[in-house]
Every structure is written in structure tokens, then in C-alpha cells.
Amino acid sequence: MTASSLRSPQAPKNQAKPIEQLIPILDETASFLAALKGRTPVVFLDFDGTLAPIAERPEAVVFSAARREAVRKLAGKLPVAIVSGRDRADVEKQVGLPGLTYAGGHGFDIRLAPSGSASEVAPDDADPLAAELDGGLAGLVERLDAMEAALHAGLDGIAGALIERKRFSVAAHDRMVAPADRPAFAAALEAARRDLRGLREKAGKRLVEFLPDIDWDKGKAVLHLRRALGVDGEGYVAVFFGDDLTDEDAFRVLPEIDGIGVLVAGADEDGRGRTSHAFFRVADPDGVCRLLNDMVA
């Protein structure tokens, strides 16, 4: 492959493309290496659907020893952070590597690697969330309790419906709901969302999640972590791997910092009208594992 044939990830900011147009990273690794521009990658990894295949129930997820070893080796050479919608304590347990930086709850709960300090979004004058946290989360438990109760009232009679309560959110999953029952599932959600005081709704893969109504997401968490970890200089490049709709928040901000987004999406998602702000694409967690190993080979 010649240098002139390499495609450079300089797409217009915030321009989403059909996922079929994303560059298959394992087929065009030279394009990925060119995008690094000689900088040290700072690797941000989603968990479900990215490091581990999605399971029908969150507690049934399987993170293989081979994938764990790939992350461990990567973290021995490069800065690595796990950025997940799971509660931080949960994703820390699932990954099982205590030396990493973890951001759970879509970035609301952050623990830096041992060389840094631990915090729930460390105070930082540059972060809009820091001021919001002083009062913005007041009453959150009560609001989540009320939303959880409303969801149970509407969904408990629907076979396969799953309500997942987390520290900073509550989610309703329809992955195991029969197609015939999905209209009833949607109607129950519509009833629950009539009172969103203090909360906002976020769609994901086969789920809807209700989070604090604060301007914070995985994208802002990535920007925060770059500063907190001291890897926001010109010699570093943020590389974010994610599969879900919530990961688009991170993909969307990456062009602003000359970063790189890698969507994890198989061929089964082609032709469904999905678009993404990522630039590269890999098919599945096995492909992610292969690429992580290649990055430190």
C-alpha cells in the first residue's frame, strides 16, 4: 500500500456516516497507523459489546481470559481507561484489572489509575460537571426510586422485560421481550417518561436509560480523563472503542481533539440505516482483542 492510497481520518467535525462507509481497521491498519501521526495512543474502551460480547442479562456477560490478557498487556505499554455504562464497581469486577482507570455510569463515577487520585469526577474548574455536582444531584436517589417504581408498574407483567437499577441511572431492557410484546413495552416506557423531573432519557442497544439531567456523557468524560491523567498534550492521541449508541457521545467529540473513534459493529448491522461519528470499524470483541494485541506487538 502506498502512502498516497492511505485514507486520513480528517472527516468534517460531527459528520456522521453510514457505518458501511467506516474504514475496516483490521484490513487497513496502515491507515490507522497513519492517523496516529507518531503520537502515543491513549486507549478508551467501552465494555459490553466492545471488550465482551453482549449477553441477554448484564450479569451473564463473559470476559474471556484472552481478552483480559490483551487489555493487561496494552495497559503495561499505554494509558488505558475503561469507560462504561455499568456502575464503576461492577465494571471493575468484570474487567478484573485493578491498575486501570475506570469511568462507570457513563462517566459519572471515575476512579483514576493508582498513580492518580480516586474520585467521583474529580473537582476541576474546567469541568461543567464539578459545579453541577454540588447541587445538581440533590434528590437523585428519590427521582431514580420513583422512575424505577414507574417502570416496574408498567413492565413487570411483560415477559422478558428487565429493569436494571444502577447508582446513577435506571435502565429498561427489551432484549428478551418477544416482538409481539414490544408495543406494550413501548407503551409502559411512554407512561414512565411522563415525569422526567431531574432526569433525562438516553437510548442504547435494546434499552432505554434514565440518567441525571446534567450535561455530562462519555464524550465529556473522555475530555476530563485526558486532563486528569495528564495525556492531553500534542504527543498523545485519544483512541475510543465502543459499540453502542451512547458511545457516539465520545465519537462526536474526538475530531475536536484530533482523536480516533473505532466503532465495534458486525455485518449484521449493515443496511439498517445506522450512522456513526466514528472513523474506523471492527466487527466484534474478538477483532478488538486482535487490534489491542497488534498495538503492543
From TrEMBL:
Residue intervals passing through the bilayer: none
Catalytic reaction(s) noted: alpha,alpha-trehalose 6-phosphate + H2O = alpha,alpha-trehalose + phosphate
Keywords carried by this UniProt record: Hydrolase, Magnesium, Metal-binding
Enzyme Commission number, as recorded: 3.1.3.12
Pathway terms, separated by semicolons: Glycan biosynthesis; trehalose biosynthesis
GO terms, biological process: trehalose biosynthetic process
Top EC class for this record: hydrolase
Function: Removes the phosphate from trehalose 6-phosphate to produce free trehalose.
Family statement drawn from the similarity comment of this UniProt entry: Belongs to the trehalose phosphatase family.
An annotated Gene Ontology molecular function: trehalose-phosphatase activity
Species of origin: Rhodospirillum rubrum (strain ATCC 11170 / ATH 1.1.1 / DSM 467 / LMG 4362 / NCIMB 8255 / S1)
Domain of life: Bacteria
Stated name of the protein: Trehalose 6-phosphate phosphatase
Cofactor(s) demanded: Mg(2+)
